[in-house]
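**Protein of interest**
===
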Amino acid sequence: MAPSGKHVEILGSYDPHFKKGVFKKERIEHWVKNGAQISDSVYNVLVSQGIIKGKKRFIKITAKKEKGKKEGKEKQAVSNKQKETSEEVGKEDKVKETKAEEKGEAKEEKQEKVKSLATSDLTKPEKTEEVKKEEKKEKPEKKEEK
């Protein structure tokens, strides 16, 4: 196949399932004599079909598998590092959560009191001592603002 993507000439076809091919022997010899480079796989097919005389070339297929294995190991190493960092972050989060829970207990108590106020009789809301104290604190601030 030409670098531009167009076929210069179709020299034959090969069916790998039946291991049979149809080739133009004269045209293949012509292109090889004029300097055409044949890949190792195509060369081996042409030798096995009797188009070209010679020994089959050795093809190292394991190179692709080894490359894939290396990439897989690298990906696995990266994922292991991500797991370790996520575990460390998880531990830090747990520590932060426990500290927040300790601080949050006081907030929860206040929220429960507010909820109890909200669930009480809506026609006549009862004010607790804390609410009265907060209102007293807010009133002097309002006076100063005016």
